[in-house]
Amino acid sequence: MCPLTKSSSDAQTENERTRIVQAGDVALQVVERGQGMPILLVHGFPLEHSMWDAQIAGLSRRWRVIAPDLPGFGGSQARGGVATMEQMADDLLALLDALEISEPVVLCGLSMGGYIAFQFWRKHASRLRGLVLCDTRAAADAPEAAQARLKVAEQVLRAGVEGVVDAMMPKLFAPSSLEKHAEAIGVQRQKMLSAAPQGVAAALQGMAARPDVRGDLPRIALPTLVVVGQHDAIATVEEMRAMAQAIPGAKFVVIPESGHMAPLENPAAFQAAIEPFLTRVERGV
Ligand code: MLT
Predict the structure, then answer these.
(1) Is the model's pTM score more than 0.85?
(2) Residue 278 CB: number of other CB atoms within 10 A?
(3) Residue 14 Cα, ligand 1 centroid: separation in angstroms?
């Protein structure tokens, strides 16, 4: 079976639970599966939890996986205004509280999920046991990139999400994946198209305003895994290697045959990278 697809019998197993949880002032959809050390999977832009389907299945064999949809994405309520990375970190904390998870979690965030992970670490480090930073950036947007995002946000509010989704597609996936997994990537495109314009615009504005955290990296005192797709066009291998080198003791893995969506494009290689890391975090070694 193509690694990006999922058979319908996998869609909702007896151990997997999908529900809407009130997290502070926002209702978030969350998928939960498995028992043990909690792993919080935070999706990228403009995706939703199903980008982690392979990891939800693979990691839940040993651990408790929690995969929410961020506000305005998937089945979660959209909020007005700017969705700052700090606000979404607070939303995730409220979600953990609502799920009564007080034990520290391993937070695994991809791209925008990584921007949020940095803010979660800055604000709520005591709730973390480890970090997995996938295909993400520590630098802020350059001023012209931030301006361009704000323009796209206006366009999304005016004309809907299709334009931004189609502009993102070639940046998200390696050219070989676009060819090899065309059908499954089409399914992901449909899911992105269902995102609420208000939520997509709010996230674009939030990403444009996000702070540069490069100066904070040497202070991250948590077990950290930095993962990047070999052909990532948004967070390059060089940029992510520098991120890993700046975080004390961080492990760095390049996932072959994948672009920005490494966990989705090459789930087997991603699993081979993350599983030994999580085992060490669990054992405290
Ligand atoms: C993402 O995958 O979350 C986006 O590429 C992040 C971004 O646009 O900076």
Answers:
(1) yes
(2) 22
(3) 33
